[in-house]
Amino acid sequence: MARDIIILECTEARGLGKPPSRYTSTRNKKSLNTPGRLEKVKFNRFLNKRTLHRELR
User: Fold this and answer.
1) Per the confidence metrics, is the pTM higher than 0.70?
2) pLDDT surpasses 80 at 56
3) What's the angle, vertex CA 28, arms to CA 27 and CA 30, rounded to 5?
4) How many structural domains compose the chain?
5) Around Cβ 45, how many Cβ atoms within 10 Å?
6) Alpha helices in the chain (DSSP H)
7) Are 22 and 46 within 8 A, CB to CB?
8) Is 5 helix (H, G, I), strand (E, B) or coil?
9) By residue range, what is the domain housing residue 8?
10) What whole-number distance in Å separates Cα of residue 45 and Cα of residue 26?
């Protein structure tokens, strides 16, 4: 299998004292385009806005 299941967590919620929103996604193991942690802009339901979510390891 060439894809990994990853967890994306909000980067802004903990600083504001709110619970972080988490999403699951997949990424290609062998991709040369994303060697570091994956970052996506997703909706945080606790902050009621779109925020940056970063991959957990």
Assistant:
1) yes
2) yes
3) 145
4) 1
5) 9
6) none
7) no
8) strand
9) 3-55
10) 21
| Spatial distance between the Cα atoms of 30 and 37, rounded to a whole number of angstroms | 14
What length does the chain have? Answer: 57
Structure tokens at 32: 């040369």
Residue 15 belongs to domain with CATH number: 2.20.28
Whether the CB-CB separation of 39 and 9 falls below 8 Å is answered with no
The token pair at 42 is 């997703």
Question: HSE (CB half, 13 Å, CA atoms) of 3?
Answer: 6
For 8-48, what is each residue's pLDDT tens digit? 999 999 889 999 999 999 988 888 887 888 999 999 999 99
The confidence band for 2, taking pLDDT boundaries of 50, 70 and 90, is confident
